[in-house]
Amino acid sequence: MIKYIVKRSGVIEPLYPDKINRWGEWAASKLGKEVNWSEAVLHVVSTMPETVTSEQLQESLIGFCLDKAIWEYNRMAGRLYSSLINKKLYNDNKPTIKELHNNLYDLGLMVRLDYNEEDYEKIERFINHKLDFNATHYELHQIRFKYALRDKVNEIEYESQQFVYMRMAMALAENEKQDERLLHVKNWYDHLSHKRLNAPTPNFVNLGTPHKGFASCCLYTTNDTAASLAAGDHIAYMMTVMSAGIGTHIKTRSLGDTIRGGIIQHQGKLPYIRSMVGAIQANLQNGRGGASTFHYTAYDPEVEVILKAKNPMTPTAKQIRGCDYSFGSNKFFARKAAKDENIGLFSYQTCPELYESQYSKDPNLFEELYDKAIEENKINQFVSARQLLLNVLNESYETGRHYLHFTDIMNTHTPFKDKIYSQNLCQEIAIPTKGFDTVKELYEPYIEGKGEIGLCSLAGIVVSNIENDEQYADVAYYALKMIDVCIHKSEYIFKNLEDTAKARLSAGVGIMGLAHLMAKNKLKYSSQEGRDYIHELFETHMYHLISASLRLGEELGNAPWMDKTLWPEGWLPIDTYEKKVDDLVTIENQRDWETLRKRIIDNKGIRNSVVSAMMPGESSSISAGTTNSVYPIRDYDLNKTNDTMAIHYVVPESSKLKDRYEIVWDIDTKDLIKCYAIMQKWTDQAISVDLYRKVQGSDKVGTSEMISIYLNMIKYGLKSRYYLNSLTGKSIASNSDIEDVVTDIDDKESECESCSL
Fold first, then answer.
1. How many CB atoms lie within 10 A of CB 613?
2. Does 75 score more than 90 pLDDT?
3. Are 731 and 700 in contact (CB under 8 A)?
4. 174 pLDDT exceeds 60?
């Protein structure tokens, strides 16, 4: 039982019950009947030693609240935690923004922002530290230890939550016109602090500091030469240094192919994959090695070796587990798998035109060149398309880290004219790349027709916190404007990359908090009403992003490489999406797309080559106090961990909305695919599509189900699939009776509707 409190000053005083009761009552105020503050106070007071510090008392109260695993208690913990942070960092005497920035500048943690005394005085009136009392504990904890500026070596902290957002806002608006920039500071700060605009980690930690790396995603390809392959490894190495995740596509010949007219026999792709993995893991990112996804296709002669490289049961000599893998296929392959026919495998050396046609905008070109190669006896290695697909899908279930991408769809449903060979680490970025001839070329200005690294900068709109359509439009504008500023503020390790990034201005603005918004509106992912709502929401999202990019184009000029896209011709996502998606909804398009199209044509394009992508937001969604990206929730409360800390996460408003949330494990996979397909209709890049399967007891995932899911994805025009998550899977089957699959696919009354491909 507590009797004495040791104050921060060292003074010891008796415990005053009335004081601690008022403290508990304040922390629980307006949080509803779910919170019993007196129980929390009584428990802590009665279970702690006779003498404790005031900080220990606060931490014990916070711990009691977190153990409840209820959202309202997490909010109470947040209020107590905010008070604790204020005492710990500032001893209840917060500095002004100017004072803090001067201190951080003297410490070398910030640059000198170009604002005068009068500007700082006005900006001081914008900041609202009381907003911290509206935050959950996990929001504050995430920002405190992941995003706020601090001396990690000596464990000295400097920034609380609102100071972080203000630093970001001021850095973003620094170079705006003198008569407008304070307005931009306020608008950016308001959207960030009210959790409407979500920023990626590089923006949180680098804006306003000497560090100028803001890119989130990097992808590259190689040419079929030793020098180009070396350039690919150099890209992987140096971009890992710059904290980017890597999407890799190695364009080279296959095992046994000739080199130098047959003097040397090609040793295949595994050594090059292994070299790439060594490059990305040579440097640390936040205490761990870098990460990459290697992209290959169904027609690669080494496909059966590559697809097993991640599996721990693969012989060591053929095992490369240091990266993830993404299997590429197209509608031609899907038809072959559905009909249980063979496909021919071909090398880049023997069939270069056929290889390139996998990434063509012409849906018929690949099949024409494939048939021609068969006639000319250039293809002499054949495998069962169905068995190959089953092997790939089995790896997805066994490792969870074997992804899918669809080479034809990602090159047709896009505004880009140039080829897209791969996607990024997380499978939501789909932009052009081109191989480099030498490492030296990376450090030189871009020359037309030479190599190009794909780079994309990200942002998110927290839809559960958007109040109206006008506000959505404004957040979309500031999301793209933030990306624009960061692209131009960045310091690039390669001169070539700087030139192409500023010429493309590729942006990926996604959605956060969809599950929370659906619950607030009493909607399910698995319902027709839910699908219709998703259609309307994602149409709104894309409409406002394109409109915002058009506005930025009018203000700042279009992307210099706008002519490398279809935007000047009036391209819109409604022109190239898979029309079968229309069967999934009962509503028509809600926006005036033809008027927008005319404005785009009149303006000869927009500011950005692309504007949208649905990325995972596991980290940044925590700081926004919302649900992750576009995914349904996995559970009502989770312990989320990374390399440095653990987070007690509780779904927003879980007590109030518990009956409205839909747990992802209870959603049929095909219902989820339908939702993703609707999102893809309105997305010019791609989606980090996660799928989920509950496998318990004697339940098994049979071949029929696996193939049916794959065919539904390609039928409805998805570009990719990211993680395949299994819940308590004890017995996952993949190679059961093939006859079961034949029966399901050939039966028109079956649930698989994709055989008409």
1. 30
2. yes
3. yes
4. yes
The two tokens of residue 612 are 């949208």
Tally Cβ neighbours within 10 Å of residue 617: 26
**How many Cβ atoms sit within 10 Å of the Cβ of residue 265?**
11
**Residue 234 has which token pair?**
């150099």
Which residues, 6+ apart, have CB-to-CB distance to 386 below 8 Å?
A: 336, 337, 338, 340, 707, 738, 741
Q: Tens of pLDDT along 105-141?
A: 999 999 999 999 999 999 999 999 999 999 999 999 9
Report the alpha-carbon distance of residue 271 to residue 250 in Å, rounded: 11
Are 735 and 725 in contact by the 8 Å Cβ rule? The answer is no
- The rounded distance, in Å, linking the Cα atoms of 543 and 744 is 40
Take residue 530 and report the two structure tokens written for it.
Answer: 């839910």
The SS3 call for residue 165 is helix
Count of all residues that appear for the chain in the document: 757
Strand partners, 293: 247, 324
Angle at 662 between CA 660 and CA 664, to 5 degrees: 170
Determine phi and psi for 744, rounding to 5 degrees: -65, -45
pLDDT per residue as tens digits for the range 278-305? 999 887 665 556 899 999 999 999 999 9
Task: Give the C-alpha distances (Å, rounded to integers) separating 50 from 11, 13, 120.
Answer: 15, 12, 47
pLDDT at 285: 63
Instruction: Using the predicted structure, report yes or no on whether residue 384 has a pLDDT greater than 60.
Output: yes
Residue type, 216: S
Q: What value does the mean pLDDT take over residues 676-697?
A: 94
Residue 269 per-residue DSSP state: S
- pLDDT tens digits, 265-274: 889 999 999 9
**pTM of the entire structure?**
0.94
Distances (CA, A) of 134 to 28, 75, 656, 666: 11, 7, 17, 31
C-alpha neighbours within 13 Å on the C-beta side of residue 206: 19
Q: What are phi and psi of 45, to 5 degrees?
A: -65, -35
CB burial of 672-687 (b: ≥16 within 10 Å; e: otherwise) equals bbbbbbbbbbbbbbbb
**Enclosing H/E stretch for 511:** strand 507-512
* pLDDT surpassing 70 at residue 185: yes
Instruction: Give the orientation angle of helix 703-715 with respect to helix 738-746, to 10 degrees.
Output: 40
Query: Residue 716 pLDDT more than 60?
Result: yes
Distance CA(562)–CA(545), nearest Å, equals 16
CB-CB contact of 578 with 716 (8 Å): yes
Does the structure show a pLDDT above 60 at 734?
no
Residue 653 pLDDT: 94
